[in-house]
Amino acid sequence: MNALETHALRLIGENVATPDVFADTVAGIAPIRDSINDAIQELCMLTGSYRRTYLLPLYADRQFYRMGWEADHFGWVVECWDRNRRRRLTQTDIFKLNNDDPWWMQRNGDPIEYFQVGSDILGLYFKPASNGIILELECVCIPKPYSNDTDPIKLREVFQRAVVYLAVCEFYAARGDAKRATEYFDRYVETAGIMSLKPETPERFYQFGGNNNNGK
């Protein structure tokens, strides 16, 4: 067990030295580990806090590039830099390109814009006229699930306590204890700083004037 799993077991009252329900084996700890992995991926996706730099070499007359991510899942590009020209590429999309320049797939030159296609393909406008350009992409990533105690936890320390709360929440929810599940879910939302996703009051719409009730 790693530190997050141990903390979660303590909160649910499990003896971490000699676990009764969640044995210190891959199969025994699997429910807690799965919940922690889900929470890590959710927080990384919501906050965009886990980022990596990806170097993308460009080739002449090639407009689309499939990125290869081995240790993580690709989320989205935050910034795209052409360091050789000291220029930042701006983001666009295919619909805008079709509207602004119907011949955009035939344009060659130094790329000035990028767009994402699907889950791991990046497109460029313009197509490079020659080899040698390398783009530096700062990307938000979602880590793949860890499977061993020694695997690194790719999550900021400030969010790790929140991850434990969500695992405990799912433990109580699976056992039908809605009160405790709600308590730990509220702790998760508050600790992670995502209270805006769970408003204290329902949304309200206010209307002023109008023709009903004499304009009230």
Describe this structure in words.
The chain has about 220 residues and is an alpha+beta fold. It contains 5 helices and 7 strands. Strand 5 and strand 6 form a beta hairpin. Helix 2 packs across helix 4 and helix 4 packs antiparallel against helix 5. The mean pLDDT is about 85.
Could you write a compact summary of the structure shown?
Helices cover 33% and strands 21% of the residues. The chain is α+β, with helices and mostly antiparallel strands and 216 residues long.
Comma- or semicolon-separated keywords:
216 residues; alpha+beta; elongated
| Beta-strand percent range | 15-25%
Catalogue the unreliable spans: none
Question: What's the story with the biggest beta sheet?
Answer: 7 strands, mixed
Tally of separate helices: 5
Structural class assignment: alpha+beta
Gyration radius, rounded = 24 Å
Strand order of the largest sheet: 1-7-3-4-5-6-2
Which percent range fits the helix content?
25-40%
Distance between the termini: 62 Å
SSE order, one letter for each helix or strand:
HHEEEEHEEEHH
Number of strands: 7
Shape: elongated
Task: Report the average pLDDT across residues.
Answer: 85
What is the secondary structure topology, with strand pairs?
Layout: H1 3-11, H2 26-47, E1 51-57, E2 64-66, E3 72-82, E4 87-91, H3 94-100, E5 113-117, E6 121-125, E7 134-143, H4 157-174, H5 178-192
Parallel strand pairs: 4-5
Antiparallel strand pairs: 1-7, 2-6, 3-4, 3-7, 5-6
Helix pairs in contact: 1-2, 1-4, 2-4, 4-5
